[in-house]
Design a protein that fits this description.
Mannose-Binding Protein A, Chain A, binds calcium ion, 4 helices, single chain, about 180 residues, 9 strands, alpha+beta
Length: about 180
């Protein structure tokens, strides 16, 4: 077995070649990984979704609090990096496009001064470009580093089946309780 294959199987190397070193944030228990391989926004969304770590599925990072923002920005080392927010569908309507918050309007934001300004046509949220300090900018698509967040277990077929059975039992018990009360 080649060394790269071993590293890939151990999750020490992502398929795109960047060394993976996910770190955990105690604020929510999620793991985060800075990926230096530059990708377009869409490719970063797609690539992040293929990552797994410790049985958790990856997605382009979604940032929903100032504390999480400070932690995530700390992983970038000052490099321009995508976060999973875009207004490409409806100009000015910023939504998360990845992870558990996919499709939701942003409730927390940390835009830099005057941002998002859609200068020219800017539909993708980025760190350190040009604003530092965890401030966000909207910018056009380009090859940029990105951050993967691992927040929820990857469901397996057996898990789905057990979940359905579990829901059925819970539903049945709920009906019985209501009937008896
Ligand atoms: Ca825009
Ligand atoms: Ca901008």
């Amino acid at each position: 077995m080649k060394l790269k294959t071993i590293f890939l199987s151990l999750g020490l190397l992502s398929a795109t070649g960047a060394v993976a070193a996910p770190v955990q944030w105690v604020g929510n228990g999620h793991w985060y990984e800075f990926v230096s391989t530059p990708l377009s926004f869409g490719d970063a969304v797609a690539d992040a979704a293929t990552h797994t770590y410790l049985g958790l599925g990856g997605h382009l990072v979604t940032v929903t609090s100032a504390d999480e923002n400070a932690f995530v920005h700390g992983l970038t080392g000052g490099a321009a990096a995508w976060l999973g927010a875009s207004d490409a569908v409806v100009e000015g309507e910023w939504r998360w496009v990845s992870g558990p918050e996919a499709g939701q309007l942003l409730t927390y934001t940390n835009w830099g001064p005057g941002e998002p300004n859609n200068a020219g046509n800017e539909d993708f949220a980025v760190y350190n470009n040009p604003w530092g300090g965890g401030l966000w900018n909207d910018r056009p698509d380009a090859g940029i580093a990105y951050i993967v967040e691992y927040s929820a277990p990857v469901p397996e077929p057996e898990t789905y089946a057990m979940l359905l059975v579990g829901l059925g039992i819970i539903g049945f018990a709920g009906r019985r309780l209501r009937k008896n009360s």
